[in-house]
Specification:
The protein contains 7 helices and 14 strands. With 251 residues, it is of the alpha+beta class. A 6-stranded antiparallel β-sheet has the order 2-1-6-5-3-4. A 5-stranded mixed β-sheet has the order 12-11-10-13-14, covered by helices on one side.
């Protein structure tokens, strides 16, 4: 496997990040997950827009242009001989010291991984997915806005562990007011009376790229889509429910 790391391709065994990298020490960084279908990167512009927006919010200056990152993604996919895969694009604060001060990290670290991925078993896509609601709440947007796709995923990971402990592959996360926000790695949709509902971003839901694709398709077919808060009551009484995400696709 070939990994793109700080401007060059290298073998997986040689792709190393320093133990002093603040992405490792503090979860200080941002990332994107992208899909490649038949050799084409799905909604690349939207993913790069979100990456650069996330980096801007956390005040990381990505040391490559969008064209350079685009070329690096394509080079990585081709170097691994893949036409259908998942791409993980990561930007960390970079190598610094044991202190928290980001000013001590002179240059961000950037790496790209391209590999096959399967988030759920194939039968889930035909039979459906059982989920549970978990105690871990989504971060309050006043303390940290989850729309920033950061490397600090402990909030999601704890919810994932709680779901797995209950025997479920995925878990529904609520905010402090009891509104549905998202699952641990997916956006949430419910269908009720021929209308699609999905939680608004201001509750703390990530503005998903696959979510936006589904909305574009739905409105193109004449469906009404509403970004409105809803509770578990609406989930329990919905006609249908499905999740969307780059890795999960639509389940």
């Amino acid at each position: 496997m070939q990994i793109w790391l700080d401007g060059q391709l290298c073998d997986k065994a040689e792709a190393r990040v320093s133990v002093f990298d603040h992405g490792l020490l503090y979860g200080d960084g941002v990332f994107e997950g992208l899909r490649v279908y038949d050799g084409c990167v799905f909604r690349l512009k939207q993913h790069l827009d979100r990456l650069y927006d996330s980096a801007r919010v956390v005040m990381i200056e990505i040391p490559y242009t969008r064209d350079q990152i685009t070329q690096a993604i394509c080079d990585t996919v081709r170097a691994n001989g893949l036409r259908n895969c998942y791409v993980r694009l990561v930007v960390t604060r970079g190598t610094g010291d044991l202190g928290l001060n980001p000013a001590n990290c002179p240059r961000p670290t950037v790496f790209i991984i391209a590999a096959p991925i399967s988030l759920y078993p194939p039968e889930v896509y035909t039979r459906g997915l059982e989920i549970v609601t978990v105690p871990s709440q989504r971060f309050h947007v006043a303390s940290w806005n989850p729309r920033v796709k950061s490397l600090n995923y402990l909030n999601n990971i704890m919810a994932k562990i709680e779901g797995q402990t209950a025997g479920a592959l995925e878990a529904l996360m609520l905010d402090h007011n009891g509104y549905v926000v998202e699952c641990t790695a997916d956006n949430v949709f419910i269908v009720r009376g021929g209308v699609l509902f999905t939680p608004p971003a201001y509750l703390g839901a990530l503005r998903g790229i696959t979510q936006a694709a589904v909305i574009d398709l739905a409105t193109g077919f004449g469906w009404t889509v509403r970004h409105e808060p809803f509770t578990r009551y609406e989930v329990f009484t919905a006609d249908e429910m499905f999740l969307t995400g780059t890795a999960a696709e639509v389940v």
